[in-house]
Design goal:
single chain, alpha/beta, MgtE N-terminal fold, Trna Endonuclease, Chain: A, domain 1, five-stranded mixed sheet, two-stranded antiparallel sheet, 57% helix
């Protein structure tokens, strides 16, 4: 009976069958597509709008999803992924062959790829990065690090705003009513040196900044440590290593330390002016 029903459905005009697939529960629609001839399925996939296609692919089991995705034109992936949740998009990417992965990644905007990479399990993330050119891999690792630092600062109960158009700072942090700029320095190799320590702007979005926090993924070199000691006599600047959640405490302490240092400096300034 099921085979006969599939044959009958397969003979329906494309527009009628497409309308039926849209109104059918997505898991059932995926089963119908899998049961049809490959050439017919390819035509139907091309006729479905991205939101409908996303709904059906998200409901399919991994094996059926892989079979359907194999018939999907590469240029359809971006609008389909855009219609999915981040987790659904990751699950779709997980069933791609290496050849498909290369083609799809080449067609996606770089910022989408970075966001999706942050949602992937580590093993899948490494597989995706392995098929990219080295320069793109480095750019995405930096992008992921920036996102994770932003999340870590949010976990400290600080209000975090991204800064655009500034080469010296990435984030503005409102901590306890004080504004601190955060400059992210991610390195693939080696250690951060004092040459890379540039204080952020004094005013961001019309807000006076109390200090600069430089965040890096590498251990601090001796000259950076010496720089921190010298910086204590000038505008508040601090440097901290952050690699994962285990370093959240150090990040929080450094932010609070800058706020405290700014308060001390302002208090000292008022005393001298009096």
């Amino acid at each position: 009976m099921w085979t006969e029903a599939v044959v009958v459905l397969g003979a329906m005009p494309t527009d009628q069958l497409t309308a039926m697939l849209r109104s059918t529960p997505p898991q059932h629609a995926a089963g119908l597509l899998i049961a049809m001839r490959t050439d017919r399925v390819a035509v139907l996939l091309a006729s479905l709008d991205p939101p409908d296609l996303a709904r059906i692919l998200a409901a399919a089991d991994p094996e059926h999803r892989a079979a359907l995705v194999a018939l999907l034109d590469v240029e359809r992936f971006a609008p389909v992924l855009a219609a999915m949740s981040k987790q659904q998009a990751v699950e779709l990417l997980a069933v791609l062959s290496e050849k498909q992965t290369v083609a799809v990644l080449a067609a996606l905007p770089p910022n989408w790829i970075t966001v999706l990479l942050t949602a992937m399990p580590t093993e899948m993330q490494d597989q995706m990065l392995a098929v990219m050119p080295p320069q793109e891999t480095a750019a995405h690792r930096l992008g992921m690090y920036r996102i994770h630092v932003g999340w870590a600062l949010n976990r400290t109960a600080a209000k975090v705003t991204w800064i655009t158009g500034d080469q010296t700072a990435d984030l503005l942090v409102d901590a306890h009513g004080w504004a601190v700029v955060v400059a992210i320095r991610y390195l693939e190799h080696g250690q951060l040196t004092s040459r890379e320590l540039v204080a952020g702007p004094a005013v961001v979005h019309g807000v006076a900044v109390s200090g600069t926090l430089i965040v890096t993924n590498t251990p601090l070199s001796d000259d950076v440590i010496r720089y921190r000691r010298r910086a204590a006599q000038g505008p508040p600047v601090d440097v901290v290593t952050w690699r994962d959640r285990d370093d959240d405490g150090a990040l929080h302490r450094a932010t609070v330390g800058l706020v405290h240092a700014a308060g001390v400096m302002r208090g000292s300034g008022r005393a001298h002016s009096g």
